[in-house]
């Protein structure tokens, strides 16, 4: 799990700090394609934004342990008969200026440990969102790898089609000379020309399929312009081997470290924490507070005694009055939930139901992953068998075509038999290509489930 978190954090750093480092054009390796796709994929960016939001939520959950401090100040201008807030006596005046200010400090001493559970929830939520980043990156990586291999497959199909067109073109030219020499009938030339037209159509079709597969990859890379875009063509024949040695259970055990499984487990912990949060609201809440304040009124005067014992009144200066009128208080309060229409207990029950649903969601994710592994394993095993059979078929069809070509050159068979042998070879080659790239993709996918990055 630590490796997954480190990888996800590296992805977040990449997206937030890395410049656009690949030029649009030139040959792209699979690793470059995956790197660029992760950096520019909108789903990955959205997942990174969720991580940022959950970081802020976690910071707030920590700050909630701090006491709250607030201040207030007010000014009041009254006319006529009014109450002097400093003496609580009524006065008659044209205008009275009053000023008051206060500071208050408060903290929650106990609330059923709701702050602790809120902090735990925020920590788990952040960890789950980090796994979501890795999951989004994994999804785009697999999609890019599939698109990349599809291009490699289509390139080989185009190359085979070009070779077939070249071969049939040579036969058309040769047969045309033979027809002109009246050595073979005109029908043989017409059959070959028809086949040449069909091969030309196939080549155009394969090129269009290749262009669409390139477009698909560039769209996954979020490239606005794919002019000049092309990929490297690595040697993949060395990747062809026997059926996977591991069984499905071993691969599935390793796949439990995948981010979607980690995220589902973390969200189950979140749901269980939500139950504790709901239960915390059944307990009393104890709060501690303190306040300090003062006030001023320009209508207030203070008595002054002279040395002769006479008393007169003078203006009460602002700062003197604020100091003399200062007051402070400390308070502690407890709120006990007695009856609130059973809302609190119902919320506990709802949280428990939600936790059960989350557990089902987690199990669904595990089951889905197991099915995907089963399917990939079956497909890889099947592709391995089909590739071996296709190799034998290509060898046999190649020998048959070589023999048919020699006989056709000698005039022992007609053009139809020659074309039939050639098409059989083309079909066998196409089947072998399909099996080869299907095997490579499925084996790479199985390795990916085990935590091995996709490379060629």
UniProtKB/TrEMBL annotation:
Localization: Cell outer membrane
Signal peptide interval: 1-23
Claim: Phosphoprotein is one of the keywords in the record: no
Family: Belongs to the outer membrane factor (OMF) (TC 1.B.17) family.
Keywords: Cell outer membrane, Membrane, Signal, Transmembrane, Transmembrane beta strand, Transport
An MF annotation (GO) of this entry: porin activity
A single cellular component GO annotation: efflux pump complex
InterPro entries linked: OMP_efflux (IPR003423), TolC-like (IPR051906)
The keyword Cytoplasm is assigned to this record: no
Name this polypeptide is given: Outer membrane efflux protein
């Amino acid at each position: 799990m630590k490796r997954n978190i480190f990888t996800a954090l590296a992805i977040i750093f990449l997206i937030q700090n890395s410049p656009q480092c690949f030029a649009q054009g030139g040959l792209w390796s699979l690793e470059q394609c995956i790197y660029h796709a992760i950096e520019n994929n909108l789903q990955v960016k959205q997942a990174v934004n969720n991580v940022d939001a959950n970081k802020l939520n976690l910071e707030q959950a920590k700050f909630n342990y701090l006491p709250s401090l607030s201040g207030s100040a007010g000014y009041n201008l009254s006319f006529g008969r009014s109450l002097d807030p400093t003496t609580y006596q009524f006065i008659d005046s044209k205008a009275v200026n009053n000023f008051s200010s206060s500071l208050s400090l408060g903290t929650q001493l106990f609330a059923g440990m709701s702050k602790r559970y809120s902090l735990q929830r925020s920590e788990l939520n952040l960890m789950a969102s980090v796994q979501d980043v890795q999951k989004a990156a994994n999804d785009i990586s697999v999609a890019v790898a599939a698109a990349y291999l599809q291009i490699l497959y289509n390139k080989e199909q185009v190359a085979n089609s070009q070779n077939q067109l070249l071969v049939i073109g040579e036969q058309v030219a040769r047969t045309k000379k033979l027809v002109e020499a009246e050595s073979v009938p005109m029908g043989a030339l017409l059959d070959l020309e028809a086949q040449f037209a069909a091969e030309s159509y196939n080549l155009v079709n394969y090129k269009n399929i290749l262009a669409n597969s390139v477009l698909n990859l560039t769209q996954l890379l979020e490239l606005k312009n794919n002019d000049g875009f092309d990929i490297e063509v690595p040697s993949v024949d060395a990747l062809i081997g026997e059926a996977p040695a591991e069984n499905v259970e071993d691969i599935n055990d390793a796949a439990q470290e995948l981010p979607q499984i980690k995220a589902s487990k973390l969200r189950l912990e979140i749901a269980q924490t939500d139950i504790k949060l709901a239960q915390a609201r059944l307990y009393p809440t104890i709060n501690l507070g303190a306040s300090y304040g003062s006030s001023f009124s320009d209508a207030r005067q203070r008595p002054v005694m002279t040395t002769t014992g006479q008393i007169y009144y003078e203006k009460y200066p602002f700062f003197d009055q604020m100091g003399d009128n200062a007051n402070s208080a400390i308070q502690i309060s407890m709120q006990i939930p007695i009856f609130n229409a059973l809302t609190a207990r119902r919320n506990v029950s709802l949280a428990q139901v939600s936790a059960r649903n989350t557990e089902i969601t987690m199990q669904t994710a595990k089951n889905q992953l197991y099915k995907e592994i089963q399917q990939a394993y079956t497909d890889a095993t099947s592709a391995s068998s089909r590739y071996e059979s296709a190799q034998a078929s290509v060898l046999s069809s190649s020998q048959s075509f070589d023999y048919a070509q020699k006989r056709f050159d000698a005039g022992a068979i007609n053009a139809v038999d020659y074309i039939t042998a050639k098409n059989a070879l083309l079909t066998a080659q196409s089947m072998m290509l399909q099996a080869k790239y299907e095997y490579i993709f499925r084996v790479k996918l199985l390795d990916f489930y085990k935590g091995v990055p996709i490379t060629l």
